[in-house]
């Protein structure tokens, strides 16, 4: 127990200084007074579970790592990877509490996030009161042992899946289990809800590469610390028949023509 406490004290001091924070600044961010933080750093006081959780959130490391790992022996590059989600004690299994709804028979609903609710979902996804007002339904052919949610997509980035389609996803707790080349619904801080084919690079650089089916859209990477929820694609529902993708060469030609038109307009503007 003593060694674990020693690691915690030395670790939080190391991490605070690594952030370039004074005790006053760190204590303010953690919601405590400076003398309390000083007590933890100097092994005078023992942290409660609530305090451990606060430090875990503040430093973006698991409680196990804060207590059991001597971070002074860990290279900076590895600490960065741990902060990005590649924590040896997390391994993608960090508990993420999912707000959900159930019926009187104690079975979970499938909540529907329509287009008009997507903006609110980004901020309310973890709020049980927000989730409670979403429309709900059930599908008898889906497993009762898994959690599902349906999102309405917009745009043409995932053609031939049409604009306005409803995509049902299965909740993914362990982000390290994301399979490259498979489609997922991703909730991110900056982009909100996106539906993309995913390349899982969490092990190598702490990110996911998001790829559209429509080749006109370029792939882009999202850091794991930007992620909030991940749902694996199950099926989609649409009132429209999917349209066949245009041949890639034709799409590239159309894009090139559009670029030429934009350049011509820019040239005329410059001349004026």
Task: Please tell me about this protein's structure.
- This protein has 272 residues and is an alpha+beta fold.
- The protein has helices at residues 2-18, 23-30, 34-41, 49-59, 63-68, 76-83, 118-124, 128-132, 202-205, 248-271, and strands at residues 110-113, 136-137, 148-152, 166-171, 182-188, 192-201, 207-211, 220-223, 227-237.
- It has a nine-stranded mixed β-sheet with strand order 2-1-3-4-9-5-6-7-8.
- A hairpin with an 8-residue loop joins strand 7 (207-211) and strand 8.
- Helix 2 crosses helix 3.
- The radius of gyration is 24 Å and the shape is globular.
Key descriptive features of the protein:
272 residues; alpha+beta; Umud Fragment, subunit A; 2 domains; 9-stranded mixed beta sheet; 9 strands; 36% helix; disordered N terminus
Topology (SSEs and partners):
Elements: H1 2-18, H2 23-30, H3 34-41, H4 49-59, H5 63-68, H6 76-83, E1 110-113, H7 118-124, H8 128-132, E2 136-137, E3 148-152, E4 166-171, E5 182-188, E6 192-201, H9 202-205, E7 207-211, E8 220-223, E9 227-237, H10 248-271
Parallel strand pairs: 1-3
Antiparallel strand pairs: 1-2, 3-4, 4-9, 5-6, 5-9, 6-7, 7-8
Helix pairs in contact: 2-3
Q: What percent of residues are in strands?
A: 15-25%
Proper CATH architecture of the largest domain: Ribbon
Task: Point out poorly predicted stretches.
Answer: 1-5, 91-95
Terminal-residue CA separation? 76 Å
| CATH H-level superfamily of the largest domain | Umud Fragment, subunit A
Note the overall shape: globular
The number of distinct helices, counting runs of at least 4 residues, comes to: 10
The main β sheet shows up as: 9 strands, mixed
Q: How many beta-strand elements?
A: 9
- Percent helix: 25-40%
Rounded to the nearest angstrom, the radius of gyration is 24 Å
CATH topology of the largest domain: Umud Fragment, subunit A
Number of domains: 2
Mean pLDDT: 85
CATH class categorisation of the largest domain: Mainly Beta
């Amino acid at each position: 127990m003593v060694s674990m406490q020693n690691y915690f004290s030395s670790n939080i001091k190391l991490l605070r200084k690594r952030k370039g924070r004074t005790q006053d600044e760190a204590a303010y961010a953690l919601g405590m007074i400076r003398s309390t933080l000083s007590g933890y750093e100097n092994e005078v006081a023992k942290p409660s579970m609530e305090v451990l959780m606060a430090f875990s959130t503040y430093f973006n490391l698991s409680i196990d790592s804060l207590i059991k790992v001597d971070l002074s022996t860990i290279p900076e590059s590895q600490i960065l990877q741990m902060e990005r989600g590649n924590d040896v004690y997390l391994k993608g299994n960090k508990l993420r509490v999912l707000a959900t709804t159930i019926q009187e028979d104690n079975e979970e609903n499938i909540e529907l996030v329509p287009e008009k609710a997507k903006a609110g979902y980004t901020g309310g996804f973890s709020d049980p009161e927000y989730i409670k007002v979403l429309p709900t339904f059930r599908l008898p052919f889906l497993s009762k042992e898994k959690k599902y949610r349906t999102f309405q997509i917009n745009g043409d980035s995932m053609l031939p899946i049409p604009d306005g389609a409803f995509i049902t996803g299965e909740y993914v707790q362990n982000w390290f289990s994301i399979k490259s080349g498979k489609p997922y619904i991703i909730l991110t801080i900056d982009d909100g809800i996106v539906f993309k084919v995913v390349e899982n690079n969490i092990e190598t650089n702490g990110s996911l590469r998001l790829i559209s089916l429509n080749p006109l859209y370029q792939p882009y990477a999202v850091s794991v610390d930007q992620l909030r929820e991940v749902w694996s694609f199950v099926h989609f529902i649409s009132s429209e028949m999917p349209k066949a993708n245009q041949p890639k060469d034709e799409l590239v030609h159309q894009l090139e023509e559009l670029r030429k038109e934009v350049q011509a307009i820019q040239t005329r503007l410059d001349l004026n």
